[in-house]
TrEMBL record, chains A, B:
EC number in record: 3.7.1.3
Taxonomic classification: Bacteria, Bacillati, Actinomycetota, Actinomycetes, Kitasatosporales
Region (Disordered): 1-27
Name of the protein in question: Kynureninase
Gene that specifies this protein: kynU
Annotated positions binding pyridoxal 5'-phosphate: 124-125, 153-156, 222, 225, 247, 277, 303
Pathway per the UniProt entry: Cofactor biosynthesis; NAD(+) biosynthesis; quinolinate from L-kynurenine: step 2/3; Amino-acid degradation; L-kynurenine degradation; L-alanine and anthranilate from L-kynurenine: step 1/1
């Protein structure tokens, strides 16, 4: 992982590309795109059309992924046949009971995990609690602190503090780049975001994990903004615990269930703070004494939320035959091209990128700082370019390689250039959720 | 609440009703049923037909409620339009963000709560953890123990023990009928099932709550097997905290999100052990410091699971114009009639009820003990009568007044009589989940 600093000044936009026709470049890139065919697996608006001025570009898949075509039919069948006709029999006959592990195994290859290491269910926040408390309980007896990514999406910090309070430890916020220097023999674990939700900075998962292990601490990664956008390599890098959502680059739907990864060698030592009956070794024994299940089922809690879980399972069909490496290649090409288009179309000085230019440190979004960013995003959305706004001054544009085209990137930058070239007098406040 | 003991011997089935034609009685009762019309709000098989021998009777709504007709269309629209077309805009424009409180307010009247006291999301187990830890934190400083219903559905005990471990308290199992005698000034709270999942016994919520309060302890109720089947009266009885699932008598679908009730006067003192970003007073401030929301939103955790939550919202339309008192009246009439039919049809000595005969102590299910109960239930299901089996020897039959008819009850008892009259040589093991 590069040691290049990424202060805003040093990651500023490159010089305009001059007279080159970016729209033609986009068409060429789309024609050569080996993932162009997967766009049809999603429900999207018509492609952007320069001639008509109709721009409908969705660059908010880092908040809520677009709808995969397979979802509607699958959910209709789950409701009408599995629930409506088979009813209770579906817990066995339709595979409902085993869905948390089965869907986990479908996510696993996208994050570099072997089967049996990922279980789906509950929200990201709830899984963070399981991971942090479970991690503390596996850590050495003398540990007194949890390190938390100082730039984290806030829920990670809130949950880490609650877990620390309930296990008698302290929380210390540390910049991800400083973790290797700050970790001590008193550190139980560090909870770190793989990609920063605000800037799109990719943190050094292999390096930070190794540094933590060298000090005897566990590495707990939040994959919300990386899973489905780039290779994660959980098994390869010996990550201990990880959590992630499924509604961003995995396109599982609004608030779709999250997942928990537990390294195979740690599973038998994992003690969940949420030992619901679904994680019992024999749930239907209705045993008053808790005995945890073997393997990743130990990460389950209550009865799985079947409609959402099976919607997610259908959504994951969009990955059939797709390698995460190909996704990463296209992701970098898209964000490179978008930054280039922004340089070409946006008047100098009107916006600057806070996303690292270095490929080694970039996720799959581009975040631009500009004045009156809330109003700017409102206007972009009115003109059909949907990104989102994070206070106080960040425009976020997410690039989902399975369905975002180079034409989308070019069109978005063109509209952004128009809007920033003549800052309109408009209201503020935008929709959005999911970090 | 009656003090009548309910040992199996004293709640045994009544004598056969003689020559009275139970099928005709059922038809009369159905014709006079003021809730007969709500059956059409659900997708069910054809009514049982004695002439054809075709018996399709669903008596497992206490595990998984049948499908309400309103669900499929609503979910299809949520997927195709709200997610597929509006995408991220739906968090505000389609009311996704406020759905946990809005759906909570729709459940509230069914459990005797005013608006603003119920929030929907997460599983029952996760809500139990919030309620027990939150309750302990509101209890007196000198408290050292949590009382847990000794006959509880096991997840309540598992979660209570985890909460106790993490807050430094002990857990003491106590029979519900003994709580008033066992509570002491060192008791932080008691976690009690309103209706016992196995026997269908209704515990004395007003009396136990009052006894706990008299000792300075909080009352935390699990409503999984009572909500939607009988009046609960949370506000009226000054219950402190309550949780429940929505997939039994509320028909929200498999694993549908659960809910948390917090008494109004306690909400500002409630400190959640799961302070996710959705419970922050200003979630989009992305504030590194946690500041809990006012009111019941404080019980939220992560991003709400929209597909399941809105399926539940549609399911709750089945309650339009229905009073929970009318439901209770029919529930008791149904279980009375079923017990009478069982007495008439089942050979003497082949089964005995473990459900209290006293109306004051009966929920909305009938549980019968018999030898080889697993095999018996398998055979019942093969013949179209769907109840469920709980080890080692209990047959459970749930009665959902919104869609169960007296003809269903009569037909189920008739088939049960046939099966118990000639115990078949069949395999064992049945499907089912949800407690």
């Amino acid at each position: 992982m590069s040691e290049t600093p990424d202060s805003p000044a040093e990651t500023g936009l490159r010089a305009p590309s001059g007279a080159r026709d970016m729209a033609s470049r986009a068409a060429e890139l789309d024609a050569a795109d080996p993932l162009a065919h997967t766009r049809d697996r999603f429900v999207l608006d018509a492609a952007p059309d320069h001639a008509s001025g109709d721009a409908s570009v969705y660059l908010d898949g880092n908040s809520l992924g677009a709808l995969p075509r397979a979802v509607a039919g699958r959910v209709a069948d789950v409701i009408a046949r599995e629930w409506g006709e088979l009813r209770i029999r579906s817990w066995t006959e339709s595979g409902w009971w085993t869905a948390p592990e089965r869907v986990g195994d479908k996510i696993a290859p996208l994050i570099g995990a072997a089967p049996g290491r990922v279980v789906v269910g509950d929200s990201t926040s709830v899984n963070l609690f399981k991971a942090v408390v479970g991690g503390v309980r596996m850590a050495g007896k003398g540990c007194t602190e949890i390190l938390v990514d100082a730039t984290t999406f806030p829920t990670d910090g809130y949950i880490a503090r609650s877990a620390a309070r309930m296990t008698g430890l302290a929380v210390r916020p540390v910049e991800p780049a400083r973790i290797a220097d700050e970790v001590t023999e008193r550190t139980a674990l560090a909870l770190v975001n793989h990609v920063d939700y605000r800037t799109g900075r990719l943190n050094d998962l292999p390096g930070i994990t190794h540094a933590l292990h060298s000090a005897g601490a566990l590495a707990v990664w939040d994959l919300c903004h990386s899973a489905g956008a780039l290779p994660v390599g959980l098994d390869a890098h010996h990550v201990d615990l990880a959590v992630g959502c499924t509604y961003k680059y995995l396109n599982g739907g609004p608030g779709a269930p999250a997942y928990l990864y537990i390294r195979e060698s740690l599973q038998e030592r994992f003690e969940s703070p949420l030992p619901g009956w679904n994680s019992h070794t024999d749930p239907f024994a209705m045993d008053p004494a808790y005995a945890p299940a073997e393997g990743i089922a130990r990460g389950r809690v209550g009865t799985p939320d079947i409609l959402s879980l099976l919607a997610l399972e259908a959504a994951l069909e969009a990955w059939d035959g797709v390698s995460i490496e190909a996704v990463r290649t296209k992701s970098l090409a898209l964000t490179d091209f978008f930054l280039e288009c922004v340089s070409a179309y946006v008047p100098p000085g009107r916006a600057r990128s806070v996303t690292p230019y270095d490929h080694q440190r970039r996720g799959s979004q581009v975040s631009l700082e500009c004045p009156r960013a809330g109003e700017v995003m409102d206007e972009l959305i009115r003109r059909g370019v949907v990104g989102d706004f994070r206070r106080p001054d960040v425009l976020r544009f997410g690039f989902t390689p399975l369905y975002t085209s180079f034409a989308d990137a070019e069109r978005a930058a063109w509209v952004l250039g128009e809007v920033l070239g003549a800052l309109p007098e408009v209201g503020s406040g935008t929709a959005g959720t999911g970090g």
